[in-house]
């Protein structure tokens, strides 16, 4: 009997412990919650679909990791500055990890218009704060970010970790996407265009995409008509990947490269400079270089199956520096280029590469030549056409090879 009673007590104890544990878990987080914001919402509301909040700030305050904040369509123009320091006004300051911010309907994507924000300091319209991870932002437009007399402003300043999906930054006086310091993440099917700074002040600091942090992946992104570079890796300490991305018409007054992959300028490079990946990308009609190694102190990238057209200072420029400790410029000796196409400009410059590093490109593959007849179209403006219904790159004929071209198998199409 004693053993039987003891066994019953043990069972009851286990049940009590299990129940207590379940209650604790339930109290902590029973399930992921959904919240909503609307241009007609109120931050005194409950935040549900029928009574949405008015601001991301309020939604973030009540949300927890794993939750989703749905953003209703319309234009958001009323903002309070969430935080300031000596240099920046941070308008929408993301300080919690693990939250998703998503358009309620991808057919009615919301717009955030920051044109009324003061320029007493640099503006960071959205900031992903240092140490914040696993944030996702999907399906929004950002416009009107001002710069005033500041050196630069940013639509997205990423110091933490974020995935940006189908996000567009357009018609700003600010960088579109700016990963800096410890910033990491992914830009997928994002666009950055008509972002132009002030002449003599910020024009040369206004890129479409800036990868200056610890490593970013860009896939199926586009940049056009920005006043500095389409994509810029200056001072990056991490490895960046550019896959099926486009750059067009950087001619507004800054450096004007399509893809500027590398370099540290006056900054101190890491002991071993990162090596980036540039593949299946298209760069056309830019005021400087199409693809540029930009004084990298070592190998800048592996460049594979890219297409460059009519870039003013050269389609592929592989300029390097001797090492991280010797800033002397040299024609690149370490770059790797395979299966690329160049047309309408200098194919390859500032390169002193071993033969095995440069194979099967349009300018050195045996038995091929490049003429206008190889391509279905030379109308680069097609690169700015609207995206498909799921955010896919538009269906274009520009630089697509004709079926009888001897270049088939090369380039990005």
TrEMBL record:
UniProt domain Pel9A-like right handed beta-helix region: residue ranges: 32-343
Subcellular location: Secreted
Protein name: Pel9A-like right handed beta-helix region domain-containing protein
Organism in which the protein naturally occurs: Clostridium saccharoperbutylacetonicum N1-4(HMT)
Alphabetical keyword list: Calcium, Lyase, Metal-binding, Secreted, Signal
Primary localisation category: secreted
Signal sequence, renumbered to the chain: 1-32
Family: Belongs to the polysaccharide lyase 9 family.
SUPFAM superfamilies per record: Pectin lyase-like
A GO MF term: metal ion binding
Keyword Cytoplasm: no
GO terms under cellular component: extracellular region
Cofactor entry: Ca(2+)
